[in-house]
Design goal:
heterodimer; A: 319 residues; two-stranded antiparallel ribbon; B: alpha+beta
Chain lengths: 319, 508
């Protein structure tokens, strides 16, 4: 197992290296200069002349050869320093840690919620195939798959404001500072995202369990006289969980940085909105670092998902 | 300077919700002045007590304008200190303005064109600063009121080679001092105990909360997560106007406008008759109505609608091109097109629009539809990301482009000099009208308000006849605040300023 993990880590290096090259080149060959316009909200905009633009680029080191810029970035990353955005003095690393924490909380809570709701709902639906409970679960599955989570977010916030003159907080409060306030920020987006994810998981669980229920090993288990709960819990579930874990792993990676619309709907200043802010400003330095982080997270989560297969399904062994 | 309401109370934290990110930290190199203004003082400022209607001394105790308008002499208050304890002297003012007006090598001064009339800035003595002018300027004092015009210390400028873009945060002499900034979240500023006005500020602290979406700003104020927002969404503002027990609202003018910039070098718009025709045919009321879910546009003319020289709205509503009844305007427009040789309409006219949804999905299609229906003009919309749009504009690679240019003050002069004057720094459409240029020059030098009004009226008439752009209208901001915010006279404001709040206080 250790050798497998080591091998996976080694093979992850070129993947991440490829990501850095791709994003670095992409940001620089895309047409349009992020420094061309100086704009702040409520104050209009100022367009730099070519001379001013050249001076601004030089002051940021953007006039250096691309390989040199790339090597400087990689050297920073190797030191654990993600550098600074074009102008802001706060290190990108600090911003990522602060805003990433709330996004991670939301992602974890959403995935946990999706398991708490989705897996039991899928089991119920599969084991009561074509019964009333199956129809009800399928109705809700369709509903939450069809309704986007950001719309749930917008509607929820609007309802809270109009009915209770209350809305979720707009400023991050760390969990250890004020757990209740932190929960107020996290619970809304986690629920909106978790419900959509739960619907997907329920559908996945239902179909894999339905398939497994008619397999030979299940028939054997039943013929041994095992109770239905034990058949489903011990035999069917282990087999059926693999695609569920895969789906959750992929969702986890996507949610940490990709829940942009839902974060925006709830006004959460998480990692997703940081990326949007950077994209709007075409802040290459922030964008390339965030993509590197997302890429690394995706690689690590994929590895963890693969490793979890061996724990869930005894037939799978890594050597 | 004191609270606009009696019996102010001290203490508390005022929370203001708006977009508080900044491209850098240098007020005069494009930083967010809405944020940094609280840390600095100007020489003079717009008076918040009377709703920003007059100019009052700020860190200058008084000022004298020479009778011929060729010199402005400011006397500084005594005992003013920067936040690091350095005393303010005339040298600091000179260093600040010299950097803006006569920038040293490598410094991007976004503001130097505004001060083209200034010949020299000098310290007469430690408390006296003199600006010598090349020619009289009708707007010089007004330019000094802009919230970008905070005074830096010479010591800070020298120590940083005149570049403060990465200096978080250079000491100022303003009512609040920097405490903390969390990028994309909030700024925390605390009361300056050594502020030159010993009675101010009444507040202990300011929190500037980053809320990029207008609707979120509105809900933040409605739910008391913020006390003020400078501009909220229409639906939340409407909700605020209904909640008269706890909320206060005001609609204020801005100096930014929606316009379709015309390339006067390209056919068919090189013909003034065609430009006049589209000016006449545009149904501004229709566009204003269509756009009101996004931004509030006012029926306005070339001179910014918040300024003292603006044409009254009722008058504008009767003018050709601006009036609601388009029957005569469209008939006149078609006649002009026929005279110009385009009686059967035009095809393949390109309208460039930024990719942001309100522009690309509402305003640009609205203009396209109106020109098609009124004049048979076939307009194709090309959508581009903002920086690409700017590059195309600068290179003149456009026929029509929807944009939102604006000026720093309520006067027409900066707009006209930048965008309409022959050779103006952002006159990307290449508009040129010798008569307009002459009137502009005369107006910029005219110190008598009545004579200047007459000149500006002439200029507006001329632009209506020979339009450089397809003017849609200046925008308004929807200001909303909690009723417990007192003393700031926000209800008296006619124009927008996302500025200082040291006279504000919080009622229990």
């Amino acid at each position: 197992m250790q050798r497998y993990i080591f091998r996976r880590l080694v093979t992850a290096v070129p993947t991440i290296f490829g990501i850095t090259i791709l994003i670095f080149v992409a940001m620089r060959i895309l047409p349009g200069d992020p420094l061309a316009v100086v704009a702040n909200e409520g104050q209009g905009q100022y367009r730099l002349t070519d001379e001013e633009l050249a001076a601004a680029r030089a002051s940021l080191g953007l006039d250096r050869p691309l390989p040199q810029q790339y090597l400087i970035w990689m050297a920073d990353v190797a030191r654990g320093d993600l550098g600074h955005s074009f102008w802001n003095t706060e290190p990108i690393r600090d911003t990522v840690v602060r805003r990433g924490a709330v996004s991670l909380e939301i992602a974890l809570a959403a995935v946990a919620l999706s398991w708490l709701i989705g897996v039991p709902a899928g089991i119920l639906s599969a084991t009561h195939h074509n019964a009333l409970s199956d129809y009800v679960v399928r109705l809700f599955m369709t509903l939450f798959l069809a309704v986007p989570s950001f719309w749930i977010g917008l509607t929820t916030v609007l309802f809270l404001v109009l009915a209770f003159t209350w809305r979720p907080p707009l400023v991050i409060t760390d969990l250890w500072q004020d757990p209740l306030k932190n929960l107020q920020m996290v619970v809304g987006p986690a629920a909106a995202l978790g419900l959509g994810l739960a619907a997907g998981l329920a559908r996945m669980t239902r179909s894999t369990i339905l398939e497994a229920l008619f397999d030979d090993y299940v028939r054997t288990a039943r013929s041994k006289g095992l109770r239905e709960n034990a058949v489903v819990g011990r035999h069917v579930m282990r087999n059926a969980l693999l695609p569920v874990v895969t789906t959750s792993g992929a969702a986890m990676g996507a949610l940490i940085g990709g829940a942009v619309a839902t974060e925006t709907a709830f006004g959460v200043p998480g990692l997703g909105s940081y990326l949007v802010q950077a994209l709007n400003a075409r802040d290459w330095i922030v964008i390339q670092n965030l993509v590197l982080i997302y890429g690394t997270i995706a690689v690590l989560i994929n590895m963890l998902v693969d490793l979890s297969y061996a724990w869930i399904d005894p037939r799978i062994r890594y050597s | 300077m004191a609270s606009a309401e009696p019996n102010p109370k001290r203490g508390g934290t005022l929370r203001i919700a708006f977009g508080v990110t900044t491209s850098n930290y240098d007020l005069q190199q494009g930083a967010s002045n809405s944020v940094l203004t609280h840390l600095y003082s100007n020489l003079v400022r717009l008076n918040p007590v009377d709703g920003l209607k007059t100019i009052v001394p700020d860190v200058a105790e008084s000022f004298v304008v020479a009778p011929d308008g060729l010199a402005y002499t400011f006397t500084l208050r005594s005992g003013v200190q920067f936040h690091d304890g350095t005393p303010l002297t005339a040298d600091d003012v000179v260093a600040t303005y010299n950097r803006m007006i006569f920038p040293p090598q490598g410094i991007v001064s976004l503001l130097k064109d505004r001060y083209a009339a200034v010949a020299k800035v000098e310290a007469v003595d430690p408390r006296t600063v003199k600006f010598t002018m090349n020619e009289p300027s009708a707007i010089f004092l007004l330019l000094l009121t802009d919230t970008t015009q905070g005074i830096y210390s010479k010591k800070t400028l020298d120590a940083n080679n005149n570049d403060l873009r990465k200096v978080l945060v250079a000491p100022g002499t303003g009512p609040f001092m920097f405490k903390e900034y969390k990028d994309g979240e909030k700024w925390t500023l605390v009361r300056n105990p050594n502020y030159w006005n010993r009675d101010l500020p009444y507040l202990d602290a300011l929190e500037l909360i980053h809320v990029p979406a207008w609707s979120d700003r509105g809900t933040a104020v409605l739910t008391s997560q913020a006390d003020v927002s400078w501009n909220v969404s229409k639906e939340t503002w409407d909700e605020g106007t209904r909640r008269t027990d706890a909320m206060r609202t005001n609609r204020v003018t801005t100096f930014g406008a929606y316009q379709v910039i015309i390339n006067a070098h390209q056919k068919p718009f090189d013909d003034p008759r065609v430009r006049r025709a589209v000016h006449l045919a545009l149904n501004r009321q229709g566009l204003i109505e269509a756009f009101k879910t996004q931004e509030q546009i006012d029926l306005s003319r070339w001179v910014p609608h918040g300024g003292q020289f603006a044409t009254p709205r009722d008058t504008i509503a009767t003018l050709p091109g601006y009036r609601a009844d388009k029957t005569q305007d469209i008939a006149d427009a078609r006649k002009l097109l026929a005279e110009a040789g385009y009686a059967s309409g035009m095809s393949a006219i390109e309208l460039l629009s930024a990719s942001v949804p309100p522009h690309a999905e509402i305003m640009a299609p609205g203009v396209q539809d109106q020109l098609k229906n009124a004049l048979g003009m076939e307009v194709n919309i090309r959508v581009a990301e903002r920086s690409l749009l700017v590059e195309d504009e600068k290179a003149g690679r456009f026929t029509l482009v929807l944009d939102t240019p604006g000026g720093p003050i309520s006067d027409f002069s900066p707009l006209a000099n930048t965008y309409f004057k022959t050779g103006g720094s952002q006159n990307y459409g290449g508009y040129s009208n010798a008569q307009f240029d002459a009137l502009l020059k005369q107006s910029d030098r005219e110190l008598d308000p009545n004579k200047r009004r007459a000149l500006l009226d002439q200029m507006q008439d001329l632009l209506d006849q020979d339009p450089p752009w397809l003017f849609i209208g200046f925008t308004d901001h929807l200001l909303m605040w909690n009723a417990r915010v007192r003393g700031l006279a926000l209800d008296k404001r006619a124009q927008s300023e996302w500025g200082r709040v040291e006279i504000a206080w919080l009622d229990a």
